[in-house]
Write a structure and sequence with these properties.
The protein has 7 helices and 10 strands. The protein has about 250 residues and is of the alpha/beta class. It has one domain (about 5-240). A 3-stranded antiparallel β-sheet has the order 1-6-3. A 3-stranded mixed β-sheet has the order 2-9-10. The longest helix is centred in the first third of the chain and has 17 residues, at about 20-35. This is DUF2971 domain-containing protein.
């Protein structure tokens, strides 16, 4: 369902704003085409540094660590990433609805204007232009009326099933596919090929602020601190998880 929860919100908004079933179906088809065209790579984070379900699901069943990346660092560098490799956004995930102001309102302003101009009316023998240049012009205008849907690209991966609400997720999303297909690399795992984009962390900008040792991780904090400092990551707060497996 990644990238598709927004479709449900969009459909509800079409109904709320009085688009007919035929108009809604036409717009949903256009949105489906957009979703099929755009893929994404995601660096997923959580506001919760010490959540039992996350230890179990994402950190080697509690043997791993929780790395606290600096939000200030990510916010600053997402612009730099976008300059070299377009398609990056940093988003707080919404559950069942978009968090904060998304692009839906802007998109529907354009769509409602196109509707008032008659660009979503059903075409039949009585209202279809007879002149070839008029036919071509009408078809181009109908296609152009759906272009504002492109504004939803940044929100496609910013809304999820409410069942995941406890994760309080943020995402650094890198669009992939079409014009964004460059700069990808790949690694393999047992069940398939995994695309990714690499980005070196500039240690002089303190990208990591905290590290939490998992409830089953027996590393000594002093060893972890020495390990991090050997790679240039200084002043990282280190603590043990307070989550209990029993």
């Amino acid at each position: 369902m990644e990238g598709r929860w927004l479709k449900g919100l969009f459909e509800k908004e079409c109904v709320t704003r009085g688009f007919t079933s035929g108009q809604t179906a036409e717009l949903l088809d256009a949105l489906d085409s957009l979703i099929e065209m755009i893929d994404s790579l995601g660096f997923c984070l959580s506001e919760e540094p010490d959540l039992l379900s996350q230890w179990r699901g994402y950190a080697d069943d509690g043997y791993g660590v929780s790395i606290g990346f600096s939000k200030a660092f990510l916010s600053k560098n997402v612009d730099a990433l976008g300059a070299d490799m377009p398609g990056y956004t940093l988003k707080k995930v919404g559950y069942g609805e978009l968090h904060g102001e998304g692009a839906l309102e802007t998109v529907f302003e354009h769509l409602e204007k196109a509707r008032s101009d008659g660009l979503f009316e059903r075409i039949g023998l009585l209202n279809f232009p007879q002149e070839e240049h008029e036919k071509e012009s009408l078809l181009k205008r109908r296609v152009a009326a759906k272009i504002p849907l492109l504004l939803l690209i940044g929100d496609l991966f910013a809304v999820k099933n409410p069942a995941f609400r406890e994760e309080k997720e943020w995402r650094l999303v890198s669009l992939s596919g079409g014009a964004f297909s460059d700069s990808k690399q790949y690694h393999t795992r047992r069940d398939g090929l995994v695309p990714f984009r690499g980005y070196a962390l500039p240690i002089d900008e303190n990208p990591i602020g905290e590290l939490v040792l998992g409830p089953r991780n027996n590393s000594r904090p002093s060893d972890v601190r020495n390990f991090l400092e050997s790679f240039g990551f200084m002043n990282v707060g280190i603590k043990k998880s307070s989550a209990s497996y029993r």
